Structures are given as structure tokens and as C-alpha cells.
UniProtKB/TrEMBL annotation:
A Pfam short name: TatD_DNase
Highest classification ranks of the organism: Eukaryota, Viridiplantae, Chlorophyta, Pyramimonadophyceae, Pyramimonadales
Stored InterPro entries: Metal_Hydrolase, Metallo-hydrolase/TatD-type, TatD-like
Molecular function GO labels: hydrolase activity, acting on ester bonds
The protein's name: TatD related DNase
Length: 355
């Protein structure tokens, strides 16, 4: 029997057994060498610490703070907090087809604060396909020593092919919306496979390419996630006709090497479209490298984000991210807020007048 992961509650339970986990994601094992490098990074973090601003100063700062990338819909209990947030705007990123209605609901509830963003996150790429007869197992890359039947029930779920038409409708219905969160992740393990399978890179790339092209068609920016795959992402951009790429492209929680920044910004024909966003949530895991990579980013391309999964931690997350960027760039907190806020306005220029 074929079931859609989105229509049958029992099947859905297998696909998303625990809500509000950090995307139900498994991180790969960390080698001793990488562990040591993280310890060194933590020591370097001491240079990032800045005394917290006073309440008066904080409210002045928040006149110029907006969140370029967050997921408050993941914590339903925290949603009421959105009303009390000091951050001026929130770009709320959708994760998968059945998550998009939650993003739309938030936009309806807070029309002057929420920018709706619709996309398929790479951690859910395995649920979205292109053919009528596709199953999750068709897009999985399974460890060589394992049989398909040991991978878990998720393998027998049929792929959604309605996502593309739905995304198109949403982009039409919400003129302030952008495409996100999309991208590629070579480290993520698929939920429901007992950590035994990843989504094929080719499938993730095709999904990303389709969504970028939809964004271009509707002249919307896109917010991208990329883990251990910056080379593949750059290849995709290099081979694409610029007409099929979005007008502005955010690399969120950017974790590439400093030289990778130049690889994007100096890319022929499309280098001027890239923005780099930094979050306390992700980027603080490697603070020394983060400072170095932020310094490589042109001042007018740096964005501030929380990437948190609860409205309750958005303001604090943004302030912490702001401290890191200010430290890297040698800016005061006030300068950092003003510059990144202007960059936010440039990136979301077509979304702001409508919210
Ligand atoms: Zn995200």
C-alpha cells in the first residue's frame, strides 16, 4: 500500500515521530582532532565576549535589529512571545510541504512582523520528489553493508509530488514571501532510518535547482543551507543561466572557509547576488573560524540571524550574533545593528513594504 507522508496520520508519525526536536537531525561523530580544534575555538571565544548592553541601550539597538532567518513555528508554546519581541521583523523559514501552512498562519497573525518563507529544507529532501511512482527508498543513499529492508519504514513512504505546485501557489498568494529554507547537506542522516541512510546528493541538488529556478521565476530571493557541500553549490551556480537564479541569495549560518566567501562574491555574473548570514546558534560552535570568515564578507553583504526554533530565544540570539559580527568587523554594537539592518532592508526590499 502506498501512503503519502502528509495524509495518513500513522505514516506521518513514522516520518516525524518527535515534534520540535531540532529538525530531528543526527550529527556525525566528531573525530579527536576536530574535538581539539573545537576546544581551541572555545578558548578563542573569550575574545568575542562583550559586556551586555544596558536596557536603554538594548532598546536603542533593537530599533535596527531584524531576524534574517528563524523557525519560531517549531515551538507552538512559544508563539505568543512573538508579540513581545523587540526584533522588528522575522523571516520565518518553512522546512517542508506540511510545514508551510504554519508559516502562512504566522504571517496572518503578525502581518507587520513576519516575512513568510517557503521551501524544502535538505533534511526533508527525501520526502519530496518529481515522479508519480517515486518512493523515499529511491532517493536514499544507504551504507554499503546494509540491506534496504533494514533501513526502516520510512523507505516505503511515497514521495510528495504536489510540493512544487503548492510552492508556486504560495509564492503567488504571498507577494512578500521568499524561497527558503532550501539547500544541500552532506552530513545529515535521514530520520526513520536508524542513522543508516542519507538523501542522495543528486536528489538534493535537483530539488535545490528547481526551487532556485522557481524563486527566479517569481523574482524572489532565496535562503540557503549548506553543509560540507560548498563546492557542489558553487558548481550549481556556475553552470546555471543567471536568469534561472534568484536576484539575491543568502547563505545562512555560513560555515565555509574564508576563501569560499571569495569563491561566491567573485563568481562571474552572479557574484553580486550573495549575502552571508551568521547566527549565534550555529556559528558559535567554531568562533575563531567564524570571526575570520565574517571579516572576509563585504560589509554590505553581512546579515544577522538567530536560526532559533523558538520565539522565546530570538531577541537574545540576535544580540549574541550581533556581538560576534561587531567583534569581527571592529564595529560598535550600534554600528553593527545599523549596517546589518540596512543589509536586511536591501535583501528583503520587496517584502518590507507589503508587511
Ligand atoms: Zn534554518
Amino acid at each position: 500500500m502506498r501512503l503519502s507522508p502528509f495524509s495518513d496520520p500513522r505514516q506521518r508519525q513514522k516520518v516525524f515521530p518527535r515534534r520540535v526536536q531540532k529538525y530531528q537531525y543526527s550529527t556525525p561523530k566528531i573525530s579527536r582532532r576536530r574535538k581539539r580544534s573545537r576546544e581551541l575555538d572555545t578558548q578563542a571565544m573569550a575574545t568575542v565576549k562583550i559586556d551586555g548592553p544596558s536596557t536603554e541601550e538594548t532598546s536603542r539597538l533593537f530599533e535596527h535589529i531584524a531576524d534574517s532567518h528563524c523557525h519560531p513555528q517549531e515551538d507552538p508554546d512559544g508563539l505568543a512571545h512573538i508579540e513581545r519581541l523587540s526584533s522588528k521583523y522575522l523571516a520565518v523559514m518553512g522546512l517542508r510541504e506540511d510545514d508551510w501552512p504554519r508559516v502562512a498562519e504566522l504571517q496572518a497573525a503578525y502581518p507587520h512582523k513576519v516575512i513568510p518563507c517557503f521551501g524544502v529544507h535538505p533534511w526533508f529532501a527525501h520526502l519530496h520528489g518529481f515522479r508519480n511512482d517515486g518512493f523515499v527508498r529511491d532517493v536514499l543513499e544507504i551504507k554499503a553493508d546494509l540491506e534496504l529492508q533494514n533501513v526502516g519504514d520510512v523507505a516505503d513512504v511515497s514521495l510528495s509530488i504536489s510540493w512544487e505546485a503548492t510552492l508556486r501557489k504560495l509564492l503567488e498568494a504571498y507577494p512578500s514571501s521568499i524561497v527558503g529554507e532550501i539547500g544541500i547537506d552532506k552530513a545529515a542522516v535521514v530520520l526513520g532510518t536508524n542513522n543508516k541512510a542519507r538523501t542522495r546528493l543528486s536528489h538534493q541538488l535537483e530539488l535545490t535547482e528547481r526551487q532556485l529556478s522557481l524563486a527566479a521565476e517569481y523574482n524572489r530571493p532565496a535562503s540557503l543551507h549548506c553543509v560540507r557541500a560548498y563546492g557542489h553549490l558553487q558548481d550549481l551556480f556556475r553552470k546555471s543561466d543567471p536568469c534561472t537564479l534568484p536576484p539575491r541569495i543568502m547563505l545562512h549560518s555560513f560555515g565555509g572557509n574564508p576563501e569560499v566567501v571569495k569563491g561566491f562574491t567573485r563568481m562571474p555574473r552572479v557574484g553580486g547576488r550573495f549575502y552571508f548570514s551568521f547566527s549565534n546558534e550555529i556559528n558559535c560552535k567554531t568562533p575563531a573560524k567564524t570571526l575570520e570568515r565574517i571579516r572576509q564578507v563585504p560589509d554590505d553583504r553581512v546579515l544577522l540571524e538567530s536560526d532559533t526554533c523558538s520565539a522565546t530565544t530570538i531577541d537574545s540570539g540576535l544580540l549574541e550574533s550581533c556581538k560576534i559580527i561587531a567583534e569581527a568587523k571592529g564595529w560598535t554594537l550600534q554600528q553593527c545593528c545599523e549596517i546589518t539592518f540596512q543589509n536586511f532592508r536591501d535583501f528583503y526590499v520587496d517584502s518590507l513594504p507589503k508587511i
